[in-house]
Specification:
Layout lengths: L5 H29 L6 H42 L4 H7 L3 H43 L3 H34 L4 H40 L12 H42 L3 H23 L16 H28 L3 H24 L4 H9 L4 H33 L5 H15 L3 H24 L3 H50 L16 H40 L13 H72 L9 H44 L4 H21 L9
Helix pairs in contact: 1-5, 1-8, 2-4, 2-6, 2-7, 2-14, 2-17, 3-4, 4-5, 4-6, 4-7, 4-14, 4-15, 5-6, 5-7, 5-8, 5-14, 6-7, 6-16, 6-17, 6-18, 7-8, 7-13, 7-14, 7-15, 7-17, 7-18, 8-9, 8-14, 9-10, 10-12, 10-13, 10-15, 11-12, 11-17, 12-13, 12-17, 12-18, 13-15, 14-15, ...
């Protein structure tokens, strides 16, 4: 940190303190959740089954991840010996630069992977502790207490994400200084890879169980959701936790850390150009301001229900959460402007942060419009259920497609502000401006993750209540909280997707910048430097087309995995319904059999999808070189964003249309409209909870792998070793494709 003044070093220590405050707040939320009552023994029996299934799944997934992570740890350590460390690393560490960077990158990778795992694992466990307590408060008919527990249990994960993300990125920078990019890439890659594992596995698990249970229980037998006679309901409730709690938490955590990584990489380039240190200190301090704002905002959620002024009193849980987000937003924007003006003596950086905050805020009403039953799009889907499943699904697809266009437009407007502010200046300023938008957008990760985790907590509480046979009033409270959770989950999926695009765009810019630095270090003539990515050359066009195709192939494999798992669940649930006494409620179903099936289905496809995400971009880079790989990244970002939003919103809208009918409209449960709604929901669920969300970490894995591999591709292009690596990658890619095309029975029976 020798480049920084004493005041700036004090600021960074202040950032570390804020990260620790976030972790302390998370600990308080955990303790506050645990001290609440767990309800009746019958409720606790259901809860214990959910808890056992979720923890068992995560243990098995961790074993699968560890094997891959160990292999990559060795590769990352050796990578520094293949491509020498940067000039900045040599200046900082002298003759020991190679070994220091090798150890630093490896440890940073392990820390990133560990932090991402902790966020997912601990966040899910606290969410499970919360769901039973929400159900207990609903039985007491205390709406506000039920909301408070659900939201605070979710906020634990949000504040853990804030604290660990800020702590890791800041500590690595403080240790490595201007050589930090060498280690930060390892930190970001570790977190992103774990998020990809957890997103894919959790998504396949939850939707294989959900689709299978709904098709037999609701459609074939006409049973209510979460009916205890349905052998698939426990697996379905477990899936909500491993998918939407563990998976989404790890997903947003890696977005949070990747935006820090890309910002510091670009900021260090500007530091070398201008000599000003605020390019690297400012984003870390703004992130710390965002953490404090998130603490203030999340703490106010329960207060809006009983606000003294009736005019400002929240009408429901959704409005209370939106109000808390606005409290956080106003606080962050105000203090960011103050800090920018008095520290950096300019307003542009704070304006870009404010645009990022505004981008996240805009997604609240935008997503609510397309997914809430209060608005026209979902009402149109409800109307389409009158004429059957086909028109229901078509209406949901149309809503999803339209929403993806508006989402792209909003993102482009936000990014366009950076262009307008820094127009006429060196392009690196615009690129840094985009990173600043990302910093602002994820300033309130605590709020975002809290809103997302709230959804499965409320959903599980509803399921526990129904299986335990609670009263009508308690069920009504839980149903209302659950309906709000559907919308908040859709909102956070939108924010996660948009943040993935902004973070990946920043990484894309870092890729272009890093390539030119590597070329300069290798003595390549300046006239041959790659300072932009062209699609007007053939290799660029090929890379762009292949990049645009990857999200579709990835999504196809993920959806096929859900379909396979669901088929096995359907057969198992049907088999158990044929057992005398199960359908009559006299014999308890074997819930653990379905849990085992869905666990196997998720693990079977896990590694092949990760291999696909890593092998294809590397193969493109080896065969067509680094400029084509850059075009590949652009194609992934474009089609990945459109496809992810389309699937997330279509699924959320179809789900809420079904719930609207279940509330008693168009004949309510058991009606033809309800049957069409359920079948539409079974199509939408894998879109919104498996394929769509998994694209977020996939986009960033592709970008980070490319950043790490680009120096090797530049230095060893055309060599025999690089072509041998290409053949190995081709074999891995063929294996991944064959794995997805195996017969349905292989590996699961």
């Amino acid at each position: 940190m020798t480049e920084l003044s004493a005041t700036e070093q004090g600021m960074l220590w202040g950032v570390i303190v804020v990260a620790l405050i976030s972790l302390i707040y998370a600990y308080w939320l955990w303790r506050d959740t645990l001290k609440r009552d767990k309800g009746t023994e019958k409720m606790q029996q259901v809860w214990r089954a959910i808890k056992t299934g979720a923890e068992g799944y995560l243990r098995r997934q961790l074993r699968t991840m560890v094997i891959v992570l160990i292999c990559l740890t060795v590769i990352l350590f050796l990578s520094v010996y293949v491509v020498p460390p940067s000039k900045e690393a040599v200046e900082r560490f002298g003759q020991n630069a190679v070994i220091v960077v090798a150890i630093g990158r490896t440890i940073a990778f392990i820390i990133g992977a560990s932090f991402s795992t902790l966020v997912g694992q601990l966040g899910m466990r606290v969410a499970i502790e919360g769901n039973i307590r929400v159900a207990a408060e609903a039985v007491r008919e205390d709406y506000n207490s039920a909301l408070t527990i659900a939201y605070r249990a979710g906020t634990f994960t949000g504040m853990l994400t804030d604290g660990l993300g800020l702590l890791g990125g800041t500590a690595i920078f403080m240790i490595f200084g201007k050589a930090a990019p060498d280690a930060l890439l390892g930190f970001g890659f570790g977190g992103t890879l774990v998020a990809l594992f957890m997103r894919i596995g959790g998504g396949i698990y939850t939707k294989a169980a959900d689709v299978g249970a709904d098709l037999v229980g609701k459609v074939e037998k006409g049973l209510p959701e979460d009916d205890p006679r349905n052998a698939g309901v426990i697996a379905d409730l477990v899936g909500d936790n491993v998918g939407d709690c563990a998976g989404m938490a790890a997903d947003i955590f890696e977005s949070y850390e990747v935006t820090i990584v890309s910002t510091l990489i670009l900021g260090l380039v500007l530091l070398h150009m201008t000599g000003n240190t605020f390019w690297i200190v400012y984003p870390l301090v703004v992130r710390a301001i965002g953490v404090i704002s998130s603490i203030l905002g999340t703490f106010t959620v329960p207060m809006w229900e009983n606000f003294p002024l009736k005019l400002l009193r929240a009408r429901d849980a959704e409005e209370a959460m939106f109000r808390s987000y606005e409290v956080s937003s106003v606080n962050t924007v105000f203090w960011a402007f103050m800090f920018s003006w008095f520290y950096a003596h300019e307003w542009q950086l704070a304006l870009l942060n404010a645009v990022g905050v505004g981008l996240a805020v805009v997604f609240n009403p935008l997503t609510s419009y397309f997914t809430s039953y209060k608005h026209r799009p979902v009402k149109e889907i409800v109307e389409s259920t009158r004429t059957g499943t086909a028109t229901t699904v078509l209406s949901g697809i149309a809503v999803g497609m339209e929403s993806s266009v508006w989402s792209v437009l909003v993102i482009c407007i936000a990014l366009g502000v950076s262009y307008l502010i820094y127009r006429g200046m060196t392009p690196i300023y615009m690129l840094y401006g985009v990173a600043m938008v990302g910093i602002g957008m994820l300033s309130h990760t605590g709020n975002n993750v809290a809103m997302d985790s709230y959804g499965p907590i409320a959903d599980n509480a509803n399921g526990i209540g129904e299986m335990a046979g609670v009263g009508e009033r308690a069920w009504a409270i839980m149903a209302e909280l659950d309906a709000v959770g559907n919308t908040t989950k859709a909102i956070t999926k939108q924010v996660a997707i948009a943040s993935a695009v902004v973070a990946a765009t920043s990484l894309f810019f870092s890729y272009v910048t890093d390539i030119s630095l590597v070329q300069a270090r290798l003595g390549i003539p300046e006239t041959e430097f790659i300072t932009s990515i062209r699609v007007s050359v053939l290799e660029g066009t090929i890379g762009f087309l292949l990049g645009g195709a990857l999200p579709f192939l990835f999504s196809a494999f993920a959806l096929r995995a859900v379909s396979r798992g669901a088929m096995f669940v359907v057969e198992e649930v049907r088999r158990q319904f044929r057992i005398p006494g199960v359908l009559e409620g006299k014999v308890t179903p074997e819930y653990d059999k379905v849990v085992s099936i869905t666990t196997a289905a998720a693990q079977k496809e896990l590694v092949s999808l990760v291999v696909l995400s890593v092998a294809l971009p590397l193969l493109v880079g080896i065969v067509f070189q680094v400029e084509a790989l850059g075009a590949f990244l652009a194609g992934v970002i474009l089609s990945g964003q459109l496809l992810a939003v389309y699937m997330a919103i279509a699924g959320g809208a179809l789900d809420n249309a079904k719930k609207y009918i279940e509330d008693g409209h168009l004949g309510g449960k058991g009606s033809p409209a309800h049957k069409a709604g359920v079948e539409g929901d079974t199509v939408g669920d894998p879109l919104k909870d498996t394929a769509g969300p998994a694209l977020n970490p996939m986009i960033k894995v592709v970008n980070l792998v490319s950043l790490l591999a680009a120096p090797i591709i530049v230095q060893y292009r055309g060599s025999a070793g690089i072509w041998v690596a290409g053949l190995i990658l081709l074999a891995m890619l063929v294996w991944a494709i064959r794995q997805s095309r195996k017969d349905v029975g292989e590996g699961l029976a």
